[in-house]
Amino acid sequence: MIWRSFDWFLLLAIVGLGWRSLNDRDLFRAVIQFIAFGLLAAVAWVRLRAPDVALAEAAVGSGLTGALLLSALARMRRREQQAVPPRTEASE
Amino acid sequence: MGALSWAALSLPAKPPGLAKASLDRLGESGVAHPVTAVLLNYRGYDTLLEVGVLLLALAGAWSLGRGEQPAENPQSRPLLLSLLRVLLPMLLLAAGHLLWIGAFAPGGAFQGGALLGGALVLLILGGLARRALKRERCLRAGLALGVLVFAGIAAVTMALTGGLLQYPPGAGGALILVIETAAMVSIGLALGLLYLGGQPPEGARRSLLATPPDHA
Amino acid sequence: MPDADYRLYLMASAAIFTIGFYSMLTQAHLLRRIMAFNVMGCGVFLLFITLAARAPGPVPDPVPHAMVLTGIVVSVCATGLALALAGRVQTVTGKTELEPGEDAGGRSGAAHHGSSA
Question: CB-based contact (8 Å) between C59 and chain B?
């Protein structure tokens, strides 16, 4: 009974975080939710007796992908800030 | 979504899995962990191609331009540096442990490589990898190591046994460990370097076309 | 730890895949699309691992596990490459979103690039 409710809780959290991470208006928060989504997926792999996949998911799927997304987001924001002044100059 | 759920639920409940076939021949594979046996023995060519895909993705990212490094002075982050001093040796140790234990328990080249990649990302973040990132030739050699060792062993074993990645009896365990070590180095480097989002920033590359800065 | 209720996991895998697919089609921001692609992949992995766990026998089927491991590493490669491409799109066009009905890469991008240079 406990495990059954655990499964329900886990899967609802995964599905909910997946939805939130793709529809949150704030991109930074979306990426953080995506990382949490990956970590919960790793818990699901353990639950399905796949510890290899859980290790890879926690390290690669959530950790490294999260780092990649965060650095790409930071780069995009930096470029946006750099791109704004010349564009206004050109339009003047 | 309803259709997908229905399709997933209507899959046969007792599929004729390959579990029995793979477990039956585990003794011949040279390792005691079935997932590692599948990855590096039964379906070794998958893993070979995968290391190739990793290399290809990095080559694609590099061809798009140069990445940037965090320009901050590492001295301004004393906490990060003191954390790295403890964390990096542990990450390296854990990567080696995962590689070794992959022969008989969950673990292996991918998980170890992921830890190495994480260590490299931390190094880049701390600004400690600047000099290493300028040695592009060394980086390229390390990146190619996995594919080259894997393909070399594949060629030699093919000459010996006549099958692609069909290891000679008794030598499977040792060969798998060699392949996994080389693959782990390449995987770690590739994953860490993807973080830069492009080729490492311009270094002191000696090229005939480059003009020295004082002449410019 | 008793066996999981596999029907639940199968339904969740369908739900996750659908969420990813839907967002892939509806979201315009490149970063969100890349995340949606990852979520879709996660749904497929969940299906595979559930089927492996459901297979008869004392241990789960190792073949899907190996395939999913390969898949995770390949999807992180694809993500890295896609993020580099998205960065390139931004430097060329100055945009981080794909708008419907617009030629994102070609003429408009070149024109913009020319005007800003």
Answer: yes
